[in-house]
Amino acid sequence: MRNLVFLYFAGYLWMKILKAINNNIVSARDENGKEIVVMGRGIGFKCREGDSIPPEAIEKIFHMDTQNETDRLKQLFSSMPLEHIEVTNRIIAYARKILGKRLNHSIYITLTDHISFSVLRFRQNMMFHNALLAEMRRFYPQEYSIGQYALDLIAKELGVRFPDDEAASIAMHIVNAEYDISLGEAVDITHLIDQMLRIVRDWHRRPLDETSVDFDRFVTHLKFLAQRALRQDRPPAGDRALYDAIAALYPGETACAHRVGAYLGDTHSFLIGDLEAACLAIHIRRVTAPDA
């Protein structure tokens, strides 16, 4: 793959082509010597090494985190329909706007590849059911809403109407990039959250109000607890006096917290500390109190 070199003259940015990936995408090197990928309609058509690209022709510049990711992106884009790339870029931009946070750059590889392959499978009548559809709706409502936006955009731009299962799959890719975790970790975290909530429901023998703010806060806490358990991150040091006070105030909720901890110990050899037990007890109290 050829690259691009940035040249600055009188405050104006120029790029010089070394090689095109396809008619609309070329690779580049930024001012620090790091390779990038540049997209713009027609910028690679009949280009030659040394040709300049005016900034107004540039639609998107991809800065990947590693050279391996850059190489994978170039390989992916070399045979990818431009409209698939453009739709994915719009979905990612929308996700950043809604979530208000940085997403791991690898999402340009994983989500573009996923959407393009899903379009192919749909046209071959080979769509699959997403077993985590219900869980993604419950535990990641923002990301799932982004998935729904993606379905509408894909239908409008690509003429393909995916089922809701695909919104959950797209949401999973957003979660991966949002929390900087692998797809496998995202699946495992979702399963752990479901099991921990099941323990709390069974312990108190009552359903939880999944529309409440307290429930949302509890799920957010469980997400990070599950991630620490999977990565075997040592629990933070606890304040024994605080734990004793919480245990005295909420003995049932503290016992339930330790049941959750026992589950993590049995399944992932992860032990929760006093601080985690106290935090869990407070969250459990908020979502199970009679007036909750």
TrEMBL record:
Domain (PRD): give its ranges: 79-184, 185-292
Keywords in UniProt for this one? Repeat
Query: Is Repeat a UniProt keyword of this protein?
Result: yes
PROSITE patterns registered for this protein in UniProt: PRD_2 (PS51372)
Q: Which GO terms describe its molecular function?
A: RNA binding
Alphabetical list of SMART domains matching this protein: CAT_RBD
Query: What GO biological process term is on the record, naming one?
Result: regulation of DNA-templated transcription
Q: Name one Pfam family in it.
A: PRD
What is the protein name for this chain?
Transcription antiterminator LicT
- In which organism is this protein found? Anaerotruncus colihominis
Q: Which gene encodes it?
A: licT
